[in-house]
Design a protein that fits this description.
Number of strands of chain B: 0
Oligomer: heterodimer
Number of helices of chain B: 6
Helix content of chain B: over 70%
CATH architecture of the largest domain in chain A: Beta Barrel
CATH superfamily of the largest domain in chain A: Rod shape-determining protein MreC, domain 1
Order of helices and strands of chain A: HHEEEEEEEEEEEE
Number of domains of chain A: 2
Distance between the termini of chain A: 154 Å
Order of helices and strands of chain B: HHHHHH
Largest sheet of chain B: none
Strand order of the largest sheet of chain A: 1-2-5-4-3-12
Strand content of chain A: 25-35%
């Protein structure tokens, strides 16, 4: 018992009681102002030290980050440009598909013929000749004289063929002559092209009553084109008393300047009447 | 050798551009003739002995592609080439004036040959219409494109065949 109350033990007990008291005061929140007062400078110092450290670390590591960010930016920019080019390509494919669908519709509504679709890849070099170049040739069964159409109407006929390309003479060419009949007036005539691409209606009898807007269809005479293909509409007519025939100008239904795809009628064989021409 | 390679590639590019782009871009009914422009600029720049062979080869190719009367394009291009060779010997060598002169008269020559070809085939054409609707717009377009094509050809062939080298 005497040993229990030695000075050392008493000191330890007092220390324990003090510590327990401080803990109880701390847990109960009575020491918070004291802690704040004590720790605030320490926290501020720690914060300052930490910020300076981070700033110094950024100073040394930021060039590496910038470089990686720049690389990433370049990669993303490349990706964006690739996606943009893909969008353009898809839009082009879409417009091409729309043209082909329209041509397909035309082929379905005219099942009496067999068709081969072709893309227009160029135009004649000389401005005096109205010709186009298409990407189908003898390897695809294309032959000289085959008629060429679009969903809108007559385009022309195959003039020259090589293995994988053909030259098409448009109906607006100065050397092109197409026999037509006017649906409303029930008369036959001819349409003739010109060096400027205008199309003229010729050989119309003087007594025929032709109205502006009358529809022209191929007559099939001469054997160069199948009958009843839409050609265009009468734009104007001139009739002179001292002439045997009326003449006029024709608005083609096909816009030759924007042709991008055509159909070739492959089951039609043109009749060559050259030996009969005097 | 490099000169002939560059020249062939240039001619092919000019033909493709002409058929694919410039023949579709019409002013009234006239179009620019990029092949003629390239030929004029190239002819004034070249100094090789067998350059005329290239003119003949590409003239024949174009004559085969075109609906114009056989060999008419070859005649036109050879004439332009020969005129350029004459100009090279003269005072206006490689100057802008030479190429303008060459393009101006070359265009008229080409159109004259086309019209003659149509007459020979018996196609009735109006000369007034041909002059106002096709010939004049074509000359204008050609003159407008002369400087850029001349500059391009000069730049391309500066490395391929520096002036003064004879291969």
């Amino acid at each position: 018992m005497r040993n229990l109350f030695t000075s050392t033990n008493i000191r330890n007990i007092i220390i324990l009681l003090v510590v327990a008291g401080i803990l109880m005061l701390a847990v109960s929140g009575y020491l918070t102002p004291l802690f704040s007062l004590t720790f605030s400078p320490l926290i501020s110092t720690q914060s300052w030290l930490s910020q300076r450290y981070l700033a110094i670390r950024d100073l040394f590591s930021s060039p590496r980050d910038m470089a990686s960010l720049r690389e990433r930016n370049i990669l993303l920019e490349n990706e964006v440009s690739q996606l943009q080019s893909q969008i353009v390509e898809l839009q082009e494919n879409l417009s091409q598909a729309q043209i082909l669908y329209t041509l397909l519709d035309f082929a379905r509504t005219n099942p009496q013929h067999e068709y081969t679709a072709a893309t227009v890849i160029g135009r004649e070099i000389s401005p005096y000749y109205q010709y186009i170049i298409i990407d189908k040739g003898s390897n695809q069964g294309i032959m000289h004289g085959m008629p060429v159409v679009t969903q809108q109407g007559l385009v022309g006929r195959i003039d020259a063929v090589v293995a994988n390309a053909s030259r098409v003479q448009l109906i607006s060419d100065a050397e092109s002559v197409v026999n037509v009949h006017l649906q409303n007036a029930k008369v036959e005539g001819q349409i003739i092209g010109s060096i400027t691409g205008e199309i003229y209606l010729e050989m119309i009898p003087q007594d025929a009553k032709i109205q502006v807007g009358d529809v022209l269809l191929t007559s099939g005479l001469g054997g160069n084109y199948p009958p009843n293909i839409f050609v265009g509409q009468v734009l104007s007519m001139q009739s002179q008393q001292n002439r045997l025939f009326q003449s006029g100008s024709v608005q083609s239904i096909v816009d030759f300047s924007t042709l991008s795809a055509v159909l070739i009628i492959t089951n039609f064989e043109a009749v060559d009447i050259t030996p009969l021409v005097p | 050798m490099l000169f002939y390679l560059y020249s062939s590639l240039g001619f092919i590019a000019a033909i493709m551009l002409q058929m694919g782009v410039f023949s579709r871009a019409a002013l009234f009914s006239g179009t620019a003739d990029v092949v003629l422009l390239f030929l004029a600029a190239w002819s004034l720049r070249q100094q090789q002995k067998y350059s005329w062979v290239l003119v003949v080869i590409f003239g024949l190719i174009l004559s085969a592609i075109s609906a114009a009367p056989a060999l008419s394009l070859l005649i036109v291009y050879l004439s332009v080439f020969l005129a350029a060779t004459r100009l090279q010997m003269g005072l206006w060598r490689s100057s802008l004036l030479s190429i303008f002169l060459l393009v101006f008269f070359g265009t008229f020559l080409a159109h004259g040959v086309y019209i003659a070809g149509l007459f020979a085939r018996g196609v009735p054409i109006s000369l007034t219409e041909a002059f106002t609707q096709i010939m004049l717009p074509s000359v204008l377009l050609n003159m407008l494109l002369t400087i850029p094509i001349h500059a391009l050809v000069q730049e391309i062939f500066r490395n391929a065949a520096p002036i003064g080298t004879e291969i």
